[in-house]
Design a protein that fits this description.
Rossmann fold, eight-stranded mixed sheet
Length: 246
């Protein structure tokens, strides 16, 4: 899917380097951005199909939602879209693509992937900037990025005020790290034959088990592309930006 130049113009190309590793990302600043003001930050993690090194493909899903003129006016924020290399993954998970839905075994305890470690470093850096509202940092993602969303919450439980995970999954036990400190909205399609909707149900159960009160939306007729329904949710951004770190 190609983009108009106007769409790409909203999100400027950037590179984050740590040691020998490089993370490409796009960043959109609010209209009339001023370093004298403070703004929320949204991190968005794309799916496996948008991996690469063009620093463009990651904008396929979700970027238009935040760049929409009405939304930019109502919710001025800094929005970051990193791109995961083709050979890597946001979440530390063993993926078996020989089955449908795919088999997933989460292995957080072995440490983050290189791509996730770079995102963590980038966000640690951003959280310290004087123009960032520390109490209003958010994360969301779809599919592989939904998995990355659950994982980054467990690795930075004190960073994010709210998160939304679309057709993802994770380690339900890790929810104890953030269930009481981060507001969540979990989305999935009941007909998803790529990532089993049971994975989101398990995460919601884990969040509830450890005292969280998540929103959960299961779309009866959606397959894997439940992000289309999610991005059409009229309350999503209003909900997200209303949250502050507990």
């Amino acid at each position: 899917m190609a983009f108009s130049n106007a769409q790409e113009d909203f999100y400027k190309e950037q590179v984050h380097v740590k040691d020998e590793d490089t993370l490409q990302y796009r960043i959109m600043y609010p209209e009339n951005f001023s370093e004298e003001e403070t703004y929320p930050v949204v991190l968005f993690l794309h799916g496996a199909g948008e991996r690469g090194k063009d620093n463009q493909k990651q904008l396929v899903h979700g970027s238009k939602l935040f760049a929409d003129k009405t939304n930019r006016g109502a919710f001025p924020a800094i929005v970051i879209f990193p791109q995961c290399p083709k050979s890597d993954y946001w979440s530390k998970v063993d993926v078996d693509r020989s089955t449908k839905p795919i088999g997933l075994k989460f292995e957080y305890e072995t440490g983050p992937t290189t791509a996730m470690a770079l995102v963590l470093d980038l966000m640690d850096e951003f959280a310290e900037k004087h123009f960032v509202k520390k109490e209003k940092i958010y994360v969301g993602g779809l599919s592989m990025g939904g998995m990355g969303t659950f994982e980054i919450l467990s690795r930075r439980p004190d960073m994010f005020a709210a998160a939304f995970a679309i057709c993802g999954g994770g380690d339900p036990e890790s929810a104890k790290e953030y269930a009481n400190t981060t507001d969540l909205w979990v989305f999935h399609g009941a007909k998803d034959d790529v990532v089993d909707p049971q994975l989101s149900i398990d995460m919601v159960s884990g969040i509830l088990k450890y005292g969280g009160k998540p929103n959960f939306t299961l779309y009866a007729d959606d397959n894997h592309n439940s992000w289309d329904s999610t991005f059409a949710e009229p309350e999503l951004l209003k909900w997200l930006f209303s949250k502050s770190k507990k």
